[in-house]
Amino acid sequence: MKVLIVGSGGREHAIALAVSRSPQVDKIYCAPGNAGIAELAECVDIKAMEFDKLVAFAKEKEIDLTVIGMDDPLVGGVVDKFEEAGLRCFGPRKNAAIIEGSKAFSKDLMKKYNIPTAGYENFTDPEAALKYLETAKYPIVLKADGLALGKGVLICENHEQAVAGVAEIMTDKKFGDAGNTMVIEEFMTGREVSVLSFVDGNTVKIMSSAQDHKRAGDGDTGLNTGGMGNFSPSPFFTKEIEEYCQKNIFQTTVDAMKAEGRPFKGVIFFGLMLTEDGPKVLEYNARFGDPEAQVVLPRLQNDIIDVFNACIDGTLDQVDLQFSDEACVCVVLASDGYPVSYKKGFPITGFEKFNNKDYYCFHAGTAKNDKGEIVTNGGRVLGITALGKDLVEARAKAYEATEWIDFENKYMRHDIANAILK
């Protein structure tokens, strides 16, 4: 088989590694890819939103399967374009990817089908939002409706912060058109858990649970980011909680999308809050998480091509999804200043030390310069990931491996997976 992966981050590197392990695959392409993915695939200079170019390339190279990693092209309808051209593509169609593309849509879906989530209201008029906030209970959460690179969520401790948040999202358009509609949501307390799942339109099969660290600074301080680290499995996602979620959240969501005439095929990422009143949905994503993919996919024991095909063909019920009993921890090495402003182009050293099967160095924001050196090329640069017999061992190994890599303005959190030490 020939496989094309669309994207350029650590998630796509993890997907490429899983695909490379399939005996069915002879050739991998990635558009546009990065310096790390280039070791597994032939990188192609086509951007993720250049749909016509992607389709033309897939036809020219006789690609057997295209895998979409990123949210923007999915929400924009890239899968529809591939299917219209008679090409196999893994990911939801545009009318299903709206589950991530519009928070207002997903909240209304949950309300209609009694899927547990926080109370909320949707607003398209900033003045109406401000009036609502006058009598709201604080803290409260403001969410830009559309895609905002994981950063369009503001937790406001008081009325003054909320007023500033409305201006930021709806008036100043910090997140662009994503802020044309805004969701105001009650603040939930508890432990956050991420659960990735494969879906074929009818059947949902969950992967392993994971737990993200979204804030930039130690102790969950600073601005929201795309994710500064992750661990899997989450010891807080018990068998009892899993059974409740399977019945009341996972399958109900898949059935709801089908009932709405929007059958979902691909990956649904369930962002959950384990509250005192039980698990509730924080958000849906319509693709693998980043860096969740980096801690989940290395533990996948199935041939991922079989799973992708089962999702496309509607035969996922025939797949026995298996993951190793090992634990996995990922620590993101970022450029100092992320997620606001940072310099790039610094040479990176230490890659040669990743020669053990328990250690992974997933490239997120990297490129090659004119000298052929691998250099920093983004806010999140690398996902340093390790497997261990348990989370304590995996965490120790991941932090050990962060010391192997060096580049100017290297920054990381030092408390990833601290919760499991306690």
Q: Strand pairing plus helix content: what structural class? A: alpha+beta
Number of domains: 4
**CATH fold-level assignment of the largest domain:** D-amino Acid Aminotransferase, Chain A, domain 1
Q: In the CATH hierarchy, what is the architecture of the largest domain at level 2? A: 2-Layer Sandwich
What percentage of amino acids are in beta strands?
25-35%
End-to-end gap: 46 Å
Account of the 3D structure:
One of its GO terms (molecular function) is metal ion binding. Keywords: ATP-binding, Ligase, Manganese, Metal-binding, Nucleotide-binding, Purine biosynthesis. Its cofactor is Mn(2+); Mg(2+). It comes from Pseudobutyrivibrio xylanivorans DSM 14809. It is an enzyme of class 6 (ligase). This protein has helices at residues 10-20, 51-60, 71-76, 78-84, 94-101, 103-112, 126-133, 159-171, 239-259, 292-296, 304-313, 391-402, 418-421, and strands spanning 2-7, 27-32, 42-43, 65-68, 89-90, 120-123, 140-144, 153-156, 182-186, 191-200, 204-212, 215-217, 221-224, 229-232, 265-275, 278-285, 327-335, 359-363, 366-368, 374-376, 380-388, 410-411. The protein has 4 domains: 2-93, Rossmann fold (3-Layer(aba) Sandwich), CATH 3.40.50; 125-180, ATP-grasp fold, A domain (Dna Ligase, domain 1, 2-Layer Sandwich); 191-318, D-amino Acid Aminotransferase, Chain A, domain 1 (2-Layer Sandwich), CATH 3.30.470; 327-421, Glycinamide Ribonucleotide Synthetase, Chain A, domain 4, CATH 3.90.600. The mean pLDDT is 96. The N and C termini lie far apart (46 Å). The chain is 30% helix and 28% strand. A hairpin with an 8-residue loop joins β7 (140-144) and β8. Strands 10, 11, 14, 15, 16, 17, 18, 21 and 22 form a 9-stranded antiparallel beta sheet that branches. The chain has 13 helices and 22 strands. α7 (126-133) packs antiparallel against α8. The protein is α+β, with helices and mostly antiparallel strands and 422 residues long.
